[in-house]
Write a structure and sequence with these properties.
333 residues
Amino acid sequence: MDLDVFVSAHRAEWDRLDALLRRRLTGAETDELVALYQRTATHLSLIQSSAPDPQLTGRLSQLVARARSAVTGTRRASWRDVTRFLTRQFPAAVYRARHWWVPTALLSTAVAALLGWWIGTHPEVQSTIAAPAELREMTRPGGQYETYYSSHPAASFAAQVWTNNAWAAALCLILGVFLGLPVIWILFQNMLNLGVGFGLMSSAGRLDTFLGLVLPHGLLELTAVFVAAGTGLRLGWTLIDPGPRSRRIALAEEGRAAIGMAIGLALVLFISGAIEGFVTPSGLPTWARITIGVVAELAFLAYVYVLGRRAVREGDTGDVAEAERSATVPTAA
């Protein structure tokens, strides 16, 4: 493409579109604006794919964005959007990512169990973690592993846990674009922490106590982390293999779904944080606390596999509604 010739041929249309956007329009001018918006969007796509020029691309991008806003109008979020997100978009996004986060969950759990066994059966490894006296203090009845969950007021502890876990999940989703490598590191750190607790408490003969403290909130909490990690890994793989879509469109679609996933997982982690703050340190019997955790986990899985599967079968991908996406136009070969 000869960029100078292209600009000379279409500059008048762009200037006319800019002029229309600055005044109140008649019916005929409104039709003209829509036509010019569609043509300018196509021009922008052709320039981006064939002869990218930063200055011209920036100008046309702003012009197309202004025109699109004028054509589609502004739209306020409503409770209908919230309901649609909770009943369709979020569960659909989680369901679509199941082929990533389910294997991530299984492999990560196996790694944590292996680390726990290795630490629990090798005193020399335990000695690298802390001195024997410190280990006894951590694992004894009423020690640090038990008092950790009741060392702060329940409400503030739940808020702190929620913030930390939501941030970890968001990092997995955001950093997935770097080919997923930071996600693997974050996930390993979480499994290492879990494996250390598992190994030290089992070596002290108090594995039942450890599981009674971790399972009530840990089932749902770890599932949310696995979903975030699996989605982050899928986002990283999209860079390598975008499939039939262009890499730019694939990243845009998967990125928007990941942002929605971060919001939904924050809600899931809020529930697990509430369980960790109020149920885990409570005086309820161990069986009752674990039952609450199992019920919360099963409810989430049913939510994903019932609502999510239905939404996907009806064509929902977890992305925003089509009317809210940027216009997609044909690109030059």
